[in-house]
Task: inverse folding
């Protein structure tokens, strides 16, 4: 399933993404307070950029005024978020992508239009901050054309109860291969990310062996080349 603006506008957070323990969910008031707190730290009223490193790359749900490949230094992709909704369940959890300290990440930077900024960000918070598992952080990005911009980046909160420290492919490949939920399978997410990174000529260390192991578990031929490796 591809997320849409209408789906997010109308979604009941308690049910639309699957059954989530209500003690895990942020209320709409808590989400808006988080957004307000983040915007209060907006640097110098400069344009708001969003860094997409996962599904935001292929399904951003907002219309950006500009999109550009970008590099974030100091963080790397990791499937360190226990997935209990969307593409997993509490009974059969998968793993979702997040960012952890160390290394670097290549992705896409999106510049949001100022006239729809609040609407776009409220929908983004509803999508990304259901359980408050990320720390929305202003970070510097290096765009592929040489510019440096400040962007909002959703970084894993290591103190969150859904954080998982062990991200070895031997542990998480079986979880991703089995998990599914109202938005589709966890494996579909992984393969979509693999395809998007290939489309942009990006490589990432966390992907190659993991993709191949999930393919093997699902009875799919491994990726011919195992070089989705930098980022």
Result:
């Amino acid at each position: 399933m591809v997320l849409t603006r209408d789906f997010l506008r109308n979604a009941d957070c308690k049910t639309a993404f699957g059954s989530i323990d209500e003690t895990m969910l942020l209320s709409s008031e808590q989400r808006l307070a988080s957004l307000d707190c983040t915007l209060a730290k907006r640097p110098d009223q400069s344009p708001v950029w969003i860094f997409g490193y996962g599904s935001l790359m292929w399904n951003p749900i907002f219309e950006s005024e500009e999109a550009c490949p970008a590099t974030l230094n100091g963080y790397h992709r990791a499937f360190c978020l226990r997935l209990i909704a969307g593409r997993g369940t509490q009974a059969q959890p998968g793993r979702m992508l997040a960012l952890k300290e160390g290394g670097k990440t290549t992705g896409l930077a999106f510049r949001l239009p100022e006239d729809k900024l609040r609407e776009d960000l409220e929908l983004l918070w509803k999508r990304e901050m259901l359980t408050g598992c990320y720390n929305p952080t202003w970070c510097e990005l290096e765009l592929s054309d040489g510019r440096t911009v400040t962007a909002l980046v959703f970084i894993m909160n290591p103190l969150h109860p859904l954080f998982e420290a062990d991200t070895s492919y031997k542990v998480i490949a079986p979880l991703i291969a089995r998990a599914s939920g109202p938005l589709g399978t966890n494996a579909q997410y992984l393969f979509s990310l693999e395809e998007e990174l290939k489309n942009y000529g990006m490589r990432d260390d966390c992907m190659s062996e993991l993709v191949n192991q999930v393919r093997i578990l699902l009875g799919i031929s491994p990726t011919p080349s195992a070089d989705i490796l930098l980022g």
Observations:
- The two ends are 27 Å apart (CA to CA).
- Confidence is low (pLDDT under 50) at residues 226-231.
- The longest strand covers residues 66-83.
- Helices lie at 5-10, 28-40, 117-128, 169-178, 186-199, 208-217.
